[in-house]
Amino acid sequence: MRKVIVDSDTATDDTIAILLASRFFQLLGVTIVAGNVNYNQEVKNALFTLEYIGKQDVPVYLGSQRPILGNWRTVEEVHGSNGMSNWNYPEPNKRPEKEHAIDAILRLSKEHEGELEILAISPLTNIALAYLKDPSVVKRVKKIWIMGGAFSKGNTTPIAEFNFWVDPEAAKIVLDAGFDITIVPWEVAEISGSLNERDWEYISKLNTKLSNFFINVNKTLKEYTTKNQGISGSIHPDSLTVSIAHDNSIILDSSLKYVDVELCSKSRGAMLIDWYSLHKNKPNAEIVLKADGGKFKNLLFNSLSQL
Where are the bilayer-spanning segments (predicted)? Predict the structure, then answer.
């Protein structure tokens, strides 16, 4: 099986992405980074998720507890005060590893040179810091799948998507490093990674351990999405990204372009795409332009239907 790390600011949809990654790949570890909610709560959420889905043996590594510049805010209004839609779940028995996430990324890239893929469904701080510590990691990591950026329809500022907005410096470092990268932007997830009321009803009726988990952790996300983003249901960009990494045929259209990130002022965190190669920059990422939402849903439903 393909070998992956999930880099996560674990809350709501991240947990489902971790679940899918554990089914689709050999999950070598989950690395935690500052982002969605309180950092310690993110750690607890990841530990509980792995226990709940029967993957207690997957190690959790603690990474950066702040972006490079430390200028961001958490978004409990999207994910609930504990990042799990306020679900009062049991205290996990599992504990994180002592090895730092950055060191774990570098070590695993050496142990699985040319095979390791990173599912980056969070701010890119850990990956940027790993690169800064050892630039040769670029040659060892096979692929990075990034959920991040927006064409123009930001979900955190009018132009910036949350993951790029939290740590745009890290995003720029990773994009400029030379990794093989595929980006799943916010708008693609909004169209093809959305679940409507009928989908929620279907998941609820599955009534399995995993479908019940989905409902419990995503309730607040659904409420927020329905109220603020014009979709009666929920948007699952992290799960879509993991699904695309697993089954590339979900990508209906993509383009290889040079991608940059704005670091300044009110446009901080904006994804800048050189669509016409105006500056003759070498392309540094494949950008997913269109995805098959039906295939995504089928993968998700099949995974949640398992006991």
Answer: none
